[in-house]
Amino acid sequence: MPESKRLVDLVQSRIDAYLMSREPIVTLISSDLTALVDYSRQFLSGGKRFRAQFCYWGAQSVLPPDSGPEQVRPTAGLTAPAGLGAIVSAASALEIFHAAALVHDDIIDNSDTRRGALSAHKLFERLHEREGWAGDPASYGRASAILLGDLLLGWSDELLDEGLEELADRASARRARLEFNFMRTEVTAGQYLDILEERAWLAQPEAELLDRALRVIVYKSAKYSVQAPLVIGAALAGASTAQLNSLRAFGLPLGMAYQLRDDLLGVFGDAAVTGKPSGDDLTEGKRTVLIALARERLTTTDRASLDSQLGDPTLDATQIRSLQQLITASGAVDRVEALIESQVTEALAALHSAPIGARARQKLLELTDRVTRRAF
User: Fold this and answer.
1) What's the CA gap between 41 and 116, in Å, rounded?
2) HSE (CB half, 13 Å, CA atoms) of 282?
3) How deeply is 3 buried, as exposed, middle or buried, from its count of CB atoms within 10 A (0-12, 13-18, 19+)?
4) DSSP 3-state assignment of 1?
5) Using CA atoms, how far apart are residues 219 and 376, in angstroms rounded to an integer?
6) Is residue 215 a contact partner of residue 259, using CB atoms and an 8 Å limit?
7) In order of start, what are the domains of the chain with their CATH numbers?
């Protein structure tokens, strides 16, 4: 079985086992809480597991050349299978954290779907409607999903701690925990910056909008999607400061390229591929780098048209196509593609000079291609 597929299976098994261990704790309180576990399973089933893979290969990248896929550096206090168990637990904790972030993100963005299915707040809303309960189904859905996201955040912490307990080297455990904590703060800050830009852009100098959009990418996505998982995995395996810094230098531009690709998919993506409606970022009013670049080249009339429609949830297919054509004609798509290539070039330069193992370097090259060349 390919190593990446085996890792994905190990992570899924670890998540499933963890949820199974938490189910009796929740349902012992009340059988009414079954939905919390059921919906958790739904949001933690499947997916590309990019964060788990970066965590795993971050750990593998700092191992001695003769280490096998389940071995870790003995001087870091990790031995197979305990070392692998710690890494899989951390990778699984990152996936649970990601699920929590998506649940909250969908509430903030008023997004009804996730991966081609109903988002968490819509699932709770449907539950309310099906049972015929009192009050507003939408309010119930939002409130319940907020709590589900909070629960998942707590569980991600607990699972990480379970993995860290397996490490004999407490310094490595503390380093990994600090990196995880730092990631949580940065993601929350990035999420706030994202909602701020959707509302405050009109009061900001036109010349600053692109830099502000890039700042959102750094903290909301780039660091936690690629850089943090790499560094957390490497810290678990006892990485040196030089190795951690090199992985940061690789992970940040790659994370930027990953999110820039995601921004293109958010405007032009095929719903059958992305699991989200085509033009979803347009109806949500996302002030992305793509939009900032488009505004720079549009005429005053076209810019006003874009601004007046962006964020309108009632946009129909014709209006969305018109906006897509407007953005494309501005040259913004080509400029974003150029930015992606530039960020990938920077990431690859850092990867090639990094003091890491050749085998992991090759796997990270393959992941680079996968996360930046996703289809529309």
Assistant:
1) 16
2) 27
3) middle
4) coil
5) 24
6) no
7) 1-46+79-166 (1.10.600.10), 170-376 (1.10.600.10)
Between CA 300 and CA 205 the distance in angstroms is 16
Kindly state the tokens that stand for 283.
């109806």
Tokens found for residue 90: 């951390």
The mean pLDDT value for 88-109 works out to 96
Residue 246 contacts residue 355 (beta carbons within 8 Å): yes
Q: How far apart are CA 314 and CA 138, in angstroms?
A: 18
Spatial neighbors of 166 by CB under 8 A, at least 6 apart, are 78, 82, 83, 85, 86, 89
Instruction: Confirm whether pTM is higher than 0.85.
Output: yes
Terminal Cα distance for the chain, rounded: 29
pLDDT digits (tens, 9 = 90+) for 210-245: 999 999 999 999 999 999 999 999 999 999 999 999
Q: How far apart are CA 141 and CA 276, in angstroms?
A: 19
Let me know: does 220 contact 193? Beta carbons within 8 Å. Answer: yes
d(Cα 187, Cα 222) in Å, to the nearest integer?
9
Nearest 10 degrees: CA dihedral of 218, 224, 225, 229?
140
- 219: which DSSP letter? I
| Location of structure tokens 């003091």 | 355
Ramachandran category for residue 238: left, alpha or beta (phi over 0 → left; psi -120 to 50 → alpha) = left
Give the amino acid at 322. S
Phi, psi for 171 (deg, rounded to 5): -65, -40
Can you tell me the distance from the alpha carbon of 366 to that of 369, in angstroms, rounded to the nearest whole number?
Answer: 5
